[in-house]
Write a structure and sequence with these properties.
The protein is an alpha/beta fold. The protein has a single domain (about 10-240), classed as Rossmann fold. It is about 40% helix and about 15% strand. It is built from eight helices and seven strands; from the N terminus they run E-H-E-H-E-H-E-H-E-H-E-H-H-H-E. Strands 3-2-1-4-5-6-7 form a seven-stranded parallel beta sheet, with helices on both faces. Strand 5, helix 5 (about 150-170) and strand 6 form a beta-alpha-beta unit. The chain is globular. About 40% of the residues are buried. The mean pLDDT is about 95. Bound molecules: NADP nicotinamide-adenine-dinucleotide phosphate. NADP nicotinamide-adenine-dinucleotide phosphate binds near residues 20, 41, 66, 189 and 190. The site of NADP nicotinamide-adenine-dinucleotide phosphate (NAP) has 28 residues, from helix 1 and helix 6.
Length: about 250
């Protein structure tokens, strides 16, 4: 059956594959025929993701991508890729008066420096095939809206989108595409770890015209579009997923 979104024959690296959005992206991509290389720090959770993938040539690499040597170790073990999804990241609320240099570093190292340095190494070691697609899991925060106590996170994600557009321009002649998916709140464990009361959550939910948060699968489907040949002419752009949040 004709399916322009099929990923058969594609080999895709997924960071942050040990949980949440990254795990779901890995699972959904495997269902469409891709071979997946998972990475994250927690080996048992990577094994759990691996066990949920549809058959294929999958593997995992344990690494902390805030450490540059670990990035190099990952890249050295990779075959030529046709796709890469940068999903590893942290969320968290930090009021401006509580910001410290250590907190800035914590957010920037994983949300911004890691995807930039991993992209650099993939290019330097020629691990991205012609016609490959790189997808950053960015955010609506910082790009389409800001909210109280979310400045550090917003700074990293708007920076990531600026990097994505720059890379798209720089690598267009090699036909390597760079795009991002920018979700508002998605129901994952990371979200449930943010300390907000039920009352605050309900007030937040009420702002969404479609009265619910997104699902990890919905992020995966947008990512699949960007990884597939269906998006061959799409580069340097963001896909906003927000249940209508930023319409008003
Ligand atoms: N959930 C949301 O509402 C939402 C909304 C918009 C955007 N996003 C973005 O979506 C992405 C995934 O979020 P999520 O909700 O799926 O969070 P999550 O479940 O906490 O997943 C985060 C992933 O990042 C990995 N990670 C964190 N630090 C790492 C490090 N130093 N080295 C390697 N891997 C590391 C974690 O793996 P290990 O612990 O195994 O290292 C984990 O697999 C993030 O970039 C986030 O900003 C999330």
């Amino acid at each position: 059956m004709h399916n322009p979104f099929a990923l058969i024959g594609k080999t895709i690296l997924v960071t942050g594959a040990s949980s949440g959005i990254g795990r779901t992206i890995a699972i959904e991509c495997s269902k469409l025929g891709a071979d997946i290389i998972l990475t994250g720090r927690n080996e048992s959770r990577l094994q759990e993701t691996l066990s949920q993938l549809k058959e294929g040539q999958h593997k995992y690499i344990v690494a902390d991508i805030t450490i540059e040597e670990d990035i190099i170790t990952i890249v050295e073990q990779l075959p030529t890729l046709t796709g890469c999804v940068h999903s590893a990241g942290i969320l968290g609320l930090v009021p401006i008066q509580a910001i410290t240099k250590a907190k800035i570093n914590e957010f920037e190292q994983i949300n911004l420096h890691a995807p930039i340095l991993l992209t650099k190494q993939l290019l330097k070691r020629k691990k991205l095939a012609k016609n490959s697609s790189v997808v950053f899991i960015s955010s609506a925060a910082g790009v389409y809206r800001v909210s109280t106590a979310n400045a550090l996170y917003a700074v990293t994600k708007s920076g990531l989108d600026a990097f994505m557009r720059s890379a798209a321009l720089e690598l267009a002649s090699k036909n390597i595409r760079f795009n991002s998916v920018n979700p508002a709140m998605i129901e994952t464990e990371a979200l449930s770890n943010i300390p907000i009361s039920e009352e605050q959550k309900n007030a937040n939910l009420a702002q969404y015209p479609i009265k619910r948060y997104g699902k990890p699968e919905e992020v995966a489907y947008a990512t699949i579009y960007l990884l597939s040949d269906a998006s061959a002419w799409t580069t340097g752009t963001e896909i906003k997923l927000d249940g209508g949040l930023t319409l008003s």
